[in-house]
Amino acid sequence: MDGVSHVSDPNNPQIRIRSLTKNNVDFVLSNTHLSVANSLRRAMIADVPTMAIDLVQFFDNTTVLADEYLAHRLGMIPLSSHSVDQFKYSRDCTCSDYCKECSVEFNLHVKCTEDGTRTVYSTELISSNKDVVPVTEGPEDRGIILIKMRRGQELHIHCVAKKGVAKEHAKWSPCAAVGFEYDPHNNLRHLNYWFEKDIKQEWPLSKNAEEEVENDPEAPFDYKAEPSVFYFNVETVGSMSPQEVVMMGTRVLQESLSGLQLALDNDQNAEPNAQMDEADPWV
To answer: What Cα–Cα distance (Å) separates residue 241 from each residue in 20, 83, 138, 254, 278?
Structure first.
């Protein structure tokens, strides 16, 4: 397959899934422009909404970690967000602070009463909504370690998780990483500007090179050629399945483009009316 060509029909992109696991999807997006593929990558990272702890109220904290440190750790805990569409953004909710329509509450009250170390895990957070809980790898997994306590130490907190996107804070990103590549053989010579001594050593071929054919280096260079095949590897943090991340990223991108098209249409319709208003009514 040749990944460098002229896009025949950009309105008909195609996706081929190469592998799919619980937290990872590897797929090939073809027959579209680089701008669209890169927009999808950015949308999956920064525009897909999830749930994350945003407010933390401390009633008692005699552990070795400061309140701010613990609050940051709590915010970075991945929460299951399969039902995120059921919640409103705080800015769109009519409540004064938070409610069940825009947030989920968590409570944690632990005290170490024995000798030795008491380890507190994310699964010990008690959620007010069974659909939004800390992510685990299985029924035996206790989740992420929040803190380790010694005898006499106590932690009592109340948390509020809200809906958000990674544009606001990275804790809302559903992705751990998004691999993105095109033109693995550098037929377009885009990498010629990004190496120091030896381009072959600094940019070794990836497995995606098996999907394409390297051009003859002696052949004339096509300055009008564009990449048409793009390789994605999406790894999630567990808050959503990789299928959900890709589909929601596509939906967000479509909604953004629809909003832009609507704004442009309204602007074009408003121009003739503005010209009529500025004209002399007596002419």
So the answer is: 10, 12, 14, 20, 55
